[in-house]
Amino acid sequence: MQSYTEKSAGLKRILVLNGPNLNLLGTREPEIYGKTTLNDINEMLKTRAKNIGVDEINFLQSNFEGELVEAIQKARGRYDFILLNAAALTHYSIALRDAIAAIPVPVIEIHLSNIHKREEFRHNSVIAPVVIGQICGFGADGYIAALEIAVRKLERDAK
Ligand code: DQA
Q1: Is the shortest distance between the CB of 144 and ligand 1 below 6 Å?
Q2: What is the longest distance spanned by two Cα atoms in the chain?
Q3: Residues 135-149: pLDDT tens digits?
Q4: Under a CB-based contact definition with an 8 Å cutoff, are residues 104 and 80 in contact?
């Protein structure tokens, strides 16, 4: 799977990717996804990143599969970790899965909702086998948890 041989010398550069419809967070099915907007989540991540010594954190939300595939391809050598909520693409995008498998940058899969206790079509994640791990069901806190895990892992691996 992912190899750590291409990692940069101790740098902590994080890319946060969000997939289709996550630009609507805050108003989209708030009973499932909460009232926090994507901008709120990104601001929380920026603040936390600063406090825990992240060198760089950048954000991309896209409703287009190809744009996310390209962002993942370009992350090679540019970022040290990817935090990814692939939204609906999680359940069917082999292109996204293949992009993740093609690069050595480790990925944490995030979902606001617990996909395992929702409709059956959400139970399967085609990206799960090619990511480090999955965090789901904790709302916006899942992004913060993922960031902290990524930083801890990078620090441990740098030693
Ligand atoms: C989601 C879960 C997906 O099933 C859904 O298609 C989304 C959001 C989540 O964050 O809970 O768009 O990824």
Answers
A1: no
A2: 43
A3: 999 999 999 999 999
A4: no
pLDDT at 7: 53
Number of H helices, E strands in the chain: 5, 5
Amino acid (1-letter code) at residue 144:
I
Whole-angstrom Cα distance, residue 41 to residue 158?
28
Q: Residue 149 corresponds to which amino acid?
A: I
Q: Rg for the chain (alpha carbons), in Å?
A: 15
Q: 151 with 9: CB under 8 angstroms?
A: no
pLDDT at position 112 is 98
Pick from 153, 159, 139, 157: nearest CA to 37: 139
* Whether the CB of 87 sits within 6 Å of ligand 1: yes
* Higher local confidence (pLDDT), 79 or 10: 79
Catalytic residues: 33, 111
Q: Which atom of ligand 1 is nearest to the CA of 86?
A: 13
pLDDT for 45 beyond 60: yes
